[in-house]
Design goal:
The protein is mainly alpha-helical. The chain has two domains: 63 residues; 48 residues. The chain has five helices and no strands.
Length: 114
Amino acid sequence: MYIYDCLYVGRNESLKLFLSQVVQKEREEKLIQTLKDRLTPYVQGNKDEFVRNTEAEVLKLSNAAYGVDMLNTIGYIYARHAAKELGALALIQLQEDMKKQLSAEGKYSKKDNF
């Protein structure tokens, strides 16, 4: 579709659709770059820096309106995708490993749901 095709009378919907697709693509590219930037410390082997940055972001988001609910939803979505990719048994093992690590750090107890 050419832009000038959208400019004819009656083509407003086509123009709106085209522009919304352009805006969506820009959003996706910005989010991809943001994700790359946030993962770079971990990929480069700076696990401590990555953990500090992530914990700071979690604290910031958890203090926002509906922040805890949002974080729980994000965690749920990631867990579902992990289960699909890794298989249910691998996910259960991953959760058990995370519980052990968090318990060792004093950040998890049996009453906490995971």
